[in-house]
Specification:
This protein has helices at residues 35-51, 71-81, 94-98, 106-113, 129-132, 134-147, 164-169, 183-195, 210-219, 244-253, 289-297, 316-328, 334-348; strands at residues 7-12, 15-20, 57-64, 83-90, 155-160, 176-177, 199-203, 225-227, 257-260, 269-270, 275-276, 302-303. With 354 residues, it is an alpha/beta fold. Helix 6 (134-147) runs parallel beside helix 8 (183-195). The radius of gyration is 19 Å and the shape is globular.
């Protein structure tokens, strides 16, 4: 299948670089992120949280509506929750989108104000920018990820059911069904493979979707893919193949696959199905042993994630507490690796010293 490319790659001093034929004026005045300087600040903050007797968390996957974010209050909540760094992606809301904003550069403000807390991450691939005009969104994604040297792309929604809160509000716009192996999917995987920048996907766990994911991972073996929401199964009858052993085999076969650990608590119910949809937990509300064993065996493939979002920005500490309940049941050193070591290695290509 041909893939549309609006960039070309050059090799110099043994490294790949990306050059674009054209870039819009908007946002060009912003300097690329200085990841070497940011990394040192990140390291100091991780150490400070450890020294305070708390397990530092690097959150690989959260998002926000920039119009509703009180950045100073949010940063204070991160301190209370022991979150060392957060990849807080911008979801451009419909109100800004209708006024012509297609790509939000708000992450620059996050990093400028709190350089030791926020990891530069691309915009979220969701409604309306991604669902209405995926090619335009990918144009911007390719342009700015390269120009500003982002270390991480945002979460792209390919198959996504409405969240429990959206279901309660009667919002159906987030019932997204885009083919992972369609033109947009191939273009995204190709860019990720050639740039080396990881990206995230929301892709519901269903029997009919799993072979497509495996095929795309095999076709683009150097594309680093973060599959969001470990064992979040909305409809159990549609996911008969999914299990700890299935995930283990998938990870062993595809070293370019990572999985984040954002999922509901033991009692969380997905109302459209009436089922407890966080399948990591057993009937006693503890982490199922089989899942714990897989994570302990392959800890660098699992990434801590909180999945805070635009309609729950004031609940950061509550969401972090759920993550910490899960982490507390992992043995060390797997606990530390999943909490912060795996993200550090994925983003910076090195192990974070204990």
């Amino acid at each position: 299948m041909p893939v549309s490319r609006r960039f070309f790659l050059t090799r110099g001093a043994g490294a790949l670089s990306i050059t674009f034929l054209a870039a819009p004026a908007a946002g060009q005045e912003l300097a690329p992120f200085d990841m070497a300087a940011l990394k040192e600040g990140y390291r100091r903050r991780v150490t400070a949280i450890k020294d305070a007797g708390m397990l530092p968390v690097i959150d690989i996957e959260s998002s926000c509506n920039p119009q509703k974010l009180d950045l100073a209050a949010f940063a204070r909540a991160m301190d209370r929750a022991g979150i060392a760094q957060m990849a807080l992606s911008v979801d451009v809301p419909g109100s800004l989108y209708e006024r012509g904003e297609r790509w939000g550069h708000h992450v620059h403000d996050f990093v400028r104000n709190y350089p030791d807390r926020f990891i530069p991450v691309g915009n979220g691939g969701n409604h309306p920018a991604w669902t209405r005009h995926p090619d335009t969104f990918l144009d911007d994604n390719e342009r700015w990820i390269a120009a500003h040297r982002y270390p991480l792309m945002g979460e792209f929604e390919f198959r996504h059911y409405p969240s429990p809160r959206q279901f309660d509000r009667g919002e159906t716009f987030r019932d997204v069904n885009m083919a992972l192996d369609g033109p947009a999917g191939h273009r995204l995987f190709s860019f990720a493979e050639q740039s080396g920048v990881p990206f995230q996907i929301h892709y519901e766990v269903e029997d009919g979707l799993l072979p497509v994911l495996a095929a795309m991972l095999a076709r683009y073996p150097r594309a680093k893919v973060i599959w969001c929401h470990l064992a979040q199964v909305r409809f159990a009858e549609r996911a008969s193949r999914y299990s700890p052993s299935f995930v283990r085999e998938l990870l062993l076969k595809h070293p370019n696959l990572y999985i984040d650990t954002a999922f509901g608590g033991p009692g969380s119910v997905y109302k459209p199905s009436g089922q407890k949809h966080a399948r990591v937990w057993n009937s006693s509300g503890q982490v199922d042993r089989a899942w714990r064993d897989v994570i302990t065996e392959l800890p660098y493939r699992f990434l801590a994630a909180i999945d805070i979002g635009g309609d729950r920005l004031d609940r950061l500490e509550e969401w972090t507490a759920n993550l910490r309940k899960f982490l507390a049941e992992l043995p060390r050193p797997a606990r530390d690796i999943v909490a912060h070591g795996a993200a550090w290695k994925l983003l910076f290509g090195e192990e974070l010293p204990p």
